[in-house]
Write a structure and sequence with these properties.
The strands form 4 sheets. Strands 1-7-6-4-5 form a 5-stranded mixed β-sheet, sandwiched between helices. It is an alpha/beta fold. 32% of the residues lie in helices and 22% in strands. The chain contains 12 helices and 13 strands. It is globular and about 55 Å long. Strand 4, helix 4 and strand 5 form a beta-alpha-beta unit. It has 3 domains: 171 residues, Thiolase/Chalcone synthase (Peroxisomal Thiolase, Chain A, domain 1, 3-Layer(aba) Sandwich), CATH 3.40.47; 125 residues, Peroxisomal Thiolase, Chain A, domain 1, CATH 3.40.47.10; 34 residues, no CATH class.
């Protein structure tokens, strides 16, 4: 079996910067309130009509492919992670394949929200290790801004998220002491509804049946109603404190799992790149693991939470800024809606 290595990386964030003060034009909030709870100072929002989840992914993918020393025609397989696809179906993987003029290769879409990129990386890792493919494009891309409600009623959610994309190209290596050492994936759906976007969904008729105006019919129904839109039922929902409590348990747990499986410990980590969910979560995990500031990379202050895109954006930015060197032990970790959580340990 081969090991898989990250041969090239790239990321893209939109040019439109929205500071916390900018958001006060739309909702009752403040820079102090947002920073105290999340650590976020600003975020990027894609152009409303000209940029999509797929177009941002292409920007990141082109950089990653170039840095890997290959072309779009060399890519054997695509794994695309997002919770904000261009269409309800089909997924963004085939749209990226089409727009980049790739061959008729496989394209897999991953729906694991904040953990999506590490899940996608794990899938690609297995394909490389078994010799199935030689150049796999792994993408995390999100356009949250088009679905956010910028009113005071939704400020607990809408101040957190931003847009962007990150991508890597995985290739095989025969060096058994470098590359992706292991990946670790977990889920627990017991509390799935405390961080979710319920509509549109196949359960919509259950909600409508309790409404007096809902017609008694045997087949069919409304996918998304004006009443759901007006009431806010179709907006993302998050119980922030409950998510925080779970994240600070599962983040360190899955990091330690990765280390233990490779006979390593916290002191061996050169750089931890957590999913950029909340700076307070990252700081808590850092303290719990006994890591120095220079051992943890955070950029949520600039970009907000870009869910599936946050890990590859942070990874690429850390590498570009000279914080990752050959031989370094890099740990990626994420926790998010589902709940799902994951980690990956990489010897650079």
């Amino acid at each position: 079996m081969y090991q898989s290595k990250i041969a090239g990386m790239g990321y893209y964030v939109p040019k439109n910067i929205y500071s916390n003060d900018d958001l006060t034009r739309f909702m009752d909030t403040s820079d102090e309130w947002i920073q105290e709870r999340t650590g976020i100072k600003e975020r990027r929002f894609a152009d409303r009509t000209e940029e999509t989840t797929t177009t941002m992914a292409i920007e990141a993918a082109e950089i990653a492919i170039s840095r890997a020393g290959v072309t779009a025609q060399d890519i054997d397989f695509i794994v695309f992670a997002t919770l904000s696809p261009d269409y309800y179906f089909p997924g963004c993987g085939v749209l990226l394949q089409r727009e980049m003029g790739m061959r008729e290769i496989g394209a897999l879409d991953v729906r694991n929200q904040c953990s999506g990129f590490i899940y996608a990386l794990s899938v690609a890792d297995q394909f490389i290790k078994t010799g199935t493919y030689k150049n796999i494009l792994v993408v995390g891309s999100e356009k949250h801004s088009f679905a956010m409600d910028f009113q005071t009623r939704s400020r607990n959610v809408s101040v957190i998220f931003g847009d962007g994309a990150g991508a890597v190209v995985l290739q095989p290596t025969q060096d058994n002491h470098s590359g992706i050492l292991s990946t670790h994936l977990h889920s627990d759906g017991a509390d799935a509804e405390i961080l979710a976007m319920y509509y549109p969904g196949a359960h919509a008729n259950k909600w409508l049946k309790n409404k007096p105006s809902f017609p008694d019919q045997e087949l069919g129904g409304l996918f998304l109603t004006s009443e759901q839109l007006e009431s806010g039922a179709a907006l993302p929902y998050m119980d922030g404190p409950a998510v925080f409590k779970k994240a600070i348990v599962k983040f360190p747990e899955v990091i330690r799992e990765a280390l233990a499986s490779n006979n390593l410990s916290e002191k061996d980590i050169d750089l931890l790149i957590p999913h950029q969910a909340n700076l307070r979560i990252s700081q808590y995990v850092q303290k719990l693991l006994g890591l120095r500031d220079d051992q943890v990379f955070n950029n949520i202050q600039k970009y907000g939470n870009t869910t599936a895109a946050s890990v590859p954006i942070a990874l690429c930015e850390a590498w570009e800024s000279g914080k990752i060197h050959t031989g370094d032990l890099v740990c990626l970790a994420a926790f998010g809606s589902g709940f799902t959580w994951a980690s990956a340990l990489i010897r650079w």
